[in-house]
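anyone else get weird line breaks when pasting these?? whatever heres mine. first is seq + tokens for prot A
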Amino acid sequence: MRNLLKSRKGMTLIEVVVVTVLLSVVLVATISIQVGMLNVWQKGASGTNANSYAAIAMREMVLEIEEGRSASVSNGNLVVSFPHLDTSSGDYVRTQPGITATYYISGEAGTESTGQNLWKSVDGTRTLLAKNVESVVFTVVSGKLVRITLTGTDQEGGAISPKMVQMSVKLRNS
């Protein structure tokens, strides 16, 4: 009888439990490494998105503002006066007043006092320029040079990643 028990081939219950525990440890370690890598990737993606939002918003504003005639800051908003545009020739008439545009941060409708959207308003008509803009600071130097500091933001995976873009714009038609 003793020889029958010793000659059996296979694994004991203790061996099976030890192998199961070792495999579980390896599996948990692999999963935790993957979760950590995913968090790092999400933070990087968030920074890239925030930088893109800020750069796009800045580009939109700069292309418009540089055509301005004069600029001022009122209650944190940028007010730009443009020369009159002669629609028949497509040229600016610098001696005649044109439209006035106001650039500001607001909510989804463009009428809220806070928000994360960059808006332009001309004669009561609001145009959304960019979303995910946390803040914008306008500084006007002698009515001809506008300095803009814009912070774009994005939230990915619980991490908020702001990116700041700064630019100076000289008014062409001043």
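and prot B, same format (seq, then tokens)
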Amino acid sequence: MVLCCDGWIIVSDWTLVKRFFVSIGTRIKEERLRLGKSQEELAACAGVQRRAQIRYEQGEREPDAGYLRAIAAHGADVLYILTGRREQPALEDIKTLTAAIEVIEEALAKRRATLPPAKKAEVIALAYDILKGDAQGQEKVERMLRLVA
């Protein structure tokens, strides 16, 4: 296999195949969804039209520095968008993780229960996922804890 230009590769039988990669557009969409915004909402935050937002997400256009600066001001992780790496968790993720730990700790204290560290970590991760995606997350986490602790 030999890498060619523009993301194409040549496989052993000399067939050109488009190399799989996660594009900047895909990561913009991931960040938009993580922030809980619609395409229209993120476009408005950045001062662009919805159609431009769609083009960015579909990889038809690459965003300029002004767009990236604007969405960063609304919580988007621009380092992740550009490189695919997160240096540190986004602020919303830290808040959600903190809330998950607090809910678990309070529920365990109420029940005077303890969990081994590995099980506690698993329950905190599950609570994080529930709280991240659901307005009634705390209630669901407490119900889950009644079952395990």
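btw re prot B: The chain has eight helices and three strands. Residues 88 and 94 are 9 Å apart (CA to CA).
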